[in-house]
Write a structure and sequence with these properties.
Bound molecules: uridine-5'-diphosphate-4-deoxy-4-fluoro-alpha-D-galactose
Number of helices: 10
CATH superfamily of the largest domain: NAD(P)-binding Rossmann-like Domain
Shape: globular
Number of domains: 2
Strand content: 15-25%
Distance between the termini: 37 Å
Strand order of the largest sheet: 3-2-1-4-5-7-12
Helix content: 25-40%
CATH topology of the largest domain: Rossmann fold
Order of helices and strands: EHEEHEHHEEHEEHEEEHEEHEEHH
């Protein structure tokens, strides 16, 4: 039987996709350096330790099983860090992906599902962003995602490599079974940080900017449950059989402000969460909300964990367990 190779399968989103595919009988091979991934998220399929910048290690991954398709999650994700250390992002997110694509061509692998990001759009021109919105990346991180998207279009033209470029909005929440969840070191994302404040692991949560032109002055984001993202990847694997390359936005289409997220977290946790109002964080767009009509129409995707309370509740259940262990 053919297997699916999952780069970054020990990370937040990759591990949720690995779990879902394994539950459906798909054979998976996880390839991860464990630099930011977690050994305790490696609960399904086969594991090959290695870095995409190390071609012999990559060859070992392709030798582990006949590989039918690749899901490519491995990348660095901190926007601020990418501004300070662009080399790290262009090397690990772009150059490393070239190694992967060349290995795929050599091994005759039919296609790839890529973890792209809403950050490729930059400052939005309209309230709901569709895939035709101009791409104006604001950071080396966002540029690295846009560059890989371009490479995928070029490899499709040159080598017939199919690709599905999934532009996530704000991934959030955790496995409803509580087996895996969101754990970044250091943590920079809003929902985990708010929950750390609820747990007493930090004194408070800083709101980055209260003077945006939004209803309550704080930034608005489209939070999408990680299990809904996982489902989109399963559908994308089928879609790849059509041999095309295309980008799809993945979001709920509803925006929540930073203050609203904190309010929902107070209600879900029943705990006090102290807030400090700070200045704006560089590079933040005031509003990022998806129009995901294309993913619904062409992939048949329908998010199931749409409301923010469910998203925060699954994240809270995971944090309670993870921070106790
Ligand atoms: N925020 C705070 N306080 C914090 C942390 C975040 O107010 O302590 C605010 C941010 O300013 C932003 C919102 O909460 O307005 C969400 O911030 P996150 O860091 O959780 O997420 P981002 O929207 O910055 O970025 C996320 C991913 C990126 C991805 C981007 C695409 O982290 O990898 O979504 O939309 F590129």
């Amino acid at each position: 039987m053919c297997a699916v190779l999952i780069t970054g399968g020990a990370g937040y989103i990759g591990s949720h996709v690995n779990k879902l595919l394994a539950s459906r009988g798909v054979e998976t091979v996880v390839f991860d350096s464990l630099v930011t991934g977690h050994a305790d998220f490696l609960q399904w399929g086969e594991f090959i330790a290695g870095d995409l910048l190390d071609p012999p290690a990559l060859e070992r991954a392709f030798a582990a099983a006949p590989i039918d398709a690749v899901l490519h999650f491995a990348s660095y994700i901190a926007v601020g860090e990418s501004v300070e250390d662009p080399n790290k992002y262009y090397l690990n997110n772009v150059a490393a992906t070239l190694n992967l694509l060349d290995a795929m061509v050599r091994h005759g692998v039919r296609g790839l599902v890529f973890s792209s990001s809403a950050s490729v759009y930059g400052e939005p021109e309209q309230e709901r962003i569709d895939e035709n919105h101009p791409k104006r990346p604001l950071s080396p991180y966002a540029h690295s995602k846009a560059m890989v998207e371009q490479m995928l279009e070029d490899y499709h033209r040159a080598h017939g490599l199919a690709s599905c470029r999934l532009r996530y909005f704000n991934a959030a929440g955790a496995d409803p079974d509580g087996e895996i969840g969101e754990r970044h070191v250091p943590e920079t994302h809003l929902i985990p940080l708010v929950l750390h404040a609820a747990l007493g692991l930090r004194k408070n949560i800083s709101i980055f900017g209260t003077d945006y032109a939004t209803p309550d002055g704080t930034c608005v984001r489209d939070y999408i449950h990680v299990s809904d993202l996982a489902e989109a990847h399963a559908l994308a694997l089928d879609w790849l059989k059509g041999g095309e390359t295309r980008a799809f936005n993945l979001g709920n289409g509803s925006g929540y402000s930073v203050r609203e997220v904190i309010e929902v977290a107070r209600a879900v946790t029943g705990r006090d969460i102290a807030v400090v109002e700070s200045g704006r964080r560089a590079g933040d767009s005031p509003v990022l909300v998806a129009s995901s009509g294309r993913a619904k129409a062409e992939l048949g995707w329908e998010p199931r964990f749409g409301d923010l309370e469910t998203i925060v509740r699954t994240a809270w259940d995971w944090h309670l367990k993870d921070c106790r262990d």
